[in-house]
Amino acid sequence: MRITKFGHACVRIEHEGEVLVLDPGVFTEPEAVDGATAVLVTHLHPDHLHADNLRATDAPVFTVGQVAEQLAADAPDVAERTTTVPAGSAFTIGAGAGLPVRAVGELHNVIHPELPQPYNSGYLMTVGDQVVYHPGDALALPEVPVDVLLCPSSAPWLRSEMAIEFVRAVGAPRNLAIHDRVYSEAGHQFLAMQMETLVGPRGQEWVRRADGDDL
Questions:
Q1: CA–CA separation, 148 vs 136, rounded Å?
Q2: Distance from first CA to last CA of the chain, Å, rounded?
Q3: How big is the chain by its Cα radius of gyration, in Å?
């Protein structure tokens, strides 16, 4: 398995010929979707959903109904290859055994009570003998053991305490910082120190990678 961090919340997962790309939004380079088998989109915010990046591949798109509706209105060419994934559903990406995926959660974390709370689906992926979890913009627990957590590290709705407790609750031994455009480098260093102090003794690793670098 190869996991590559791209801009902001985008992650590319490659395994045995399958290429799964998650959330190639406006902060993500179009090459993130090169050769994609499928693209998963967690919700409709533009830092996760960018029609031009979806047009840079002919791969099928799997997402929540709200995103499918927006694509039907704004990018009907993409909507034609988009599948709506209901909350809690399971599906497989690719041919043969492929990559099993399960949708987790249903709503975006609250940003402010007066702002809309969009639908959000995290994705729990079985990649060989590893389980990888991308929660999107929510902190829904997967309820199964996870090997690699792709954890939001900065957001208008996220305090460092919330990220730390999410990492602890999921319990993954490896945790990759994603959703990282909101903090400055100094802010990410503060979070890394807190993670080292509070989750490191539990045997959990917190890492952040530059865009284009592998985990």
A1: 14
A2: 10
A3: 16
CB distance 81 to 60 below 8 Å: yes
Contact between residue 26 and residue 44 where contact means Cβ atoms under 8 Å apart: no
**Dist. CA 206–CA 89, nearest whole Å:** 29
Task: Give the phi and the psi of residue 167 in degrees, each rounded to 5.
Answer: -60, -45
Size of the chain, expressed as the number of residues it contains: 215
CA-based nearest residue to 43, from 74, 69, 78, 17: 69
Total-model pTM: 0.96
Q: Is 142 helix (H, G, I), strand (E, B) or coil?
A: coil
Long-range Cβ pairs for the range 158-163 (8 Å, 24+) = 158/109, 160/190, 160/191, 160/194, 163/191, 163/195
Q: Estimate the crossing angle of helix 160-170 against helix 185-198, to 10 degrees.
A: 40
What domains can be seen in the chain, in order of their start residue? 2-207 (3.60.15.10)
What would the pLDDT profile of 69-122 be if each residue is shown by its tens digit?
999 999 999 999 999 999 999 999 987 678 999 999 999 999 999 999 999 999
pLDDT, tens digit, for every residue of 35-70?
Answer: 999 999 999 999 999 999 999 999 999 999 999 999
